[in-house]
Amino acid sequence: MATAPERLVRRLEWKVGRRLDGRLQGAYRTVWRGTGIDFSDLRAYTPEDDVRHIDWNVTARLDEPFVRQYTEDRELTAWLVVDTSGSMRVGNAETGKESLTTNLALSLAQLMVKGGNRVGAILYDNGAHQIVPPRSGRNQVLRLARELSRAETSSTTTTDLDAMLRLAASTTSQRRGLVFVLSDFIGEPGWERSLARLVHRHEVVAVRVADPVESALPDVGLILVQDAETGEQLLVDTSDPLLQRRLGAEAQAREDAVTEGLERGGVAAHRISTDEEFVPALVGLVHRSRQVRR
Fold it and tell me: Would you state the pLDDT for residue 133?
């Protein structure tokens, strides 16, 4: 009898994989590819080129910018850095942030292994973390599904995003690869510099996972709310217009701070909410990543 992780992977393969084939017309298998390490040629610089590929010696001699071209790797190592802290458990088990993050992580893993690439994972919480070494093939996706289903929150403090990103930088290979950071980015400030160091070494795709309840509480009268990470509880009147305005302002300030932090770290901000349809949101993520890469 199939286990729950196996059923989840099978469902994503049949329902998500088939729809992606149609929406992306098969191109998703080569959206993320290695940049290559073997020098092949020089050509004149164009505005779309990565400035890191400029050959400054040749540029100085010819008084015109030239970029190095490399033989593209056929295989790529990708890492999934998954935030498993308490704030990721907002919402119910079927449609909440944790479920969305799991589906997103496994779908990205399937996209990578279908192209013959290897994928590993770092499941992070302040109190504990787990590292899944990169492997290729469907069995690796199944292992990731099992480990994600077992991940538990052990910390009662706000997520240390800086420590998570430093762990990612120290764990991932020295060779340039692809790193997906899947988090709500609710945590201690000051993580931008660690993100920038990770970007310097790898291509990084950061996805902010969100839930509408985080920005606007429904008007249901008096309720007891609890901080998902610290466990602190507070009785609030959701019908209070002043409270609603304050919550909205704080949510917008947090959103702006995350967007600004990602930009300072050198990463485009991708946002996926639990109230979006999953497949179109994933297709949009792939298309936006392709545009940024170009």
Answer: 94
When pLDDT is averaged across residues 160-187 and rounded to a whole number, the result is 90
H-state helical runs in the chain:
4-11, 18-24, 56-62, 97-114, 138-150, 161-171, 192-201, 241-264, 278-293
**CA nearest to 73, candidates 49, 38, 40, 43:** 38
The model's pLDDT over 106-165, given as tens digits with 9 standing for 90+, comes to: 999 998 888 788 999 999 988 788 999 999 999 999 999 999 988 776 666 778 999 999
Q: What separation in angstroms does the CA of 211 have from each of 144, 215, 279?
A: 24, 8, 17
User: Could you tell me which residues come within 8 angstroms of residue 109 by beta carbon, excluding any fewer than 6 positions away?
Assistant: 78, 80, 119, 121, 140, 141, 144
Is-contact 139 165, C-beta < 8 A?
no
| Confidence label for 27 from pLDDT (cuts 50, 70 and 90) | very low
CATH entry, 4-29+74-293, from 3.30.750.24, 2.40.110.10, 3.40.50.410, 3.30.2040.10? 3.40.50.410
